[in-house]
Design a protein that fits this description.
alpha/beta; 249 residues; 11 strands; six-stranded mixed sheet; 2-enoyl-CoA Hydratase, Chain A, domain 1
Length: 249
């Protein structure tokens, strides 16, 4: 359980999220993921990273139950810091990060996939932001990298999800495969990248980040500010508690 790191010996590092039952990460999990990504990118023998997950889905976002059982705002603040660190670690990783997405990819999962260089998805994968229903905002920055502007807005307002096949049509998901073929497809793509000159690939990653039209870290931090406002207003706490009550303690 937790964040697992597997080195394949062929220039590929596989980082696996494993927080049963739904990969809703506690604050410490987000920080651990950020650390694993940073360490992989700092390793000169690593030429590509595959970010995958065990269990029913890729990632269900933050652990809301942890927030509700922790007095004060400590868990909320740490979750926000952890998400910011993990999303930034994907984006800033000196080598390409390939997200292998299966099942649900929600909230923070969209933050990870949206900041990845390439997304490969299982045909059962769905993507969405339930934040409005949870009294929060965030990761629209990253969803906007996966879907067109007006669809992004509709998804934020309604909390609807979209399927991997639709993202494939947009070009934001490179390949859609059966679930049992997902990890192999992601590793095959990583191997193709790892076969290139590593200095050129690292330079390519840096150059592509440099020409991005949106500063994803500043944009996401701006979104987080509204989550803090909603929390101070009390609406966020009420929404989170409804979520916990509906699913049991």
């Amino acid at each position: 359980m937790g964040i697992q790191v597997h080195a394949t010996g062929d220039g590929i590092a596989e980082i696996v999220i494993d927080f049963p039952p739904v990969n809703a990460l506690p604050a410490s999990g987000w920080h651990a993921l950020a650390g694993a990504l940073s360490a992989a990118g700092a390793d000169p023998s690593v030429r590509a990273v595959v970010l995958a997950a065990e269990g029913r889905g890729f990632c269900a976002g933050v652990d809301i139950k942890e927030m509700q059982r922790t007095p004060g705002h400590t868990a909320l603040i740490e979750a926000n810091r952890g998400c910011f660190a993990a999303f930034a670690a994907v984006y800033d990783c000196p080598v390409p990060v390939i997200a292998a997405v299966h099942g649900f990819c929600l909230g923070g999962g969209v933050g990870l996939a949206g900041n990845a260089d390439i997304v490969v998805a299982a045909d059962d994968a769905t993507f969405g932001l339930p934040e409005v229903d949870r009294g929060a905002l965030g990761a629209a920055t990253h969803l906007a990298r996966l879907v067109p502007q007006h669809l992004m807005r509709a998804m934020v307002y309604t909390c609807r999800t979209v399927a991997a096949a639709q993202l494939h049509a947009f070009g934001s998901v490179l390949e859609v495969v059966p679930p049992d073929k997902l990890r192999a497809a992601a590793r095959a793509l990583a191997a193709e990248i790892a076969g290139k000159d590593p200095l050129v690939i690292r330079a390519a990653k840096q150059s592509l980040n440099g020409i991005d039209p949106v500063d994803v870290k500043r944009s996401y931090r701006y979104e987080q500010g509204f989550t803090f406002e909603l929390n101070l207003d009390g609406v966020a706490d009420r929404a989170r508690q409804r979520f916990v009550d509906e699913r049991g303690q």
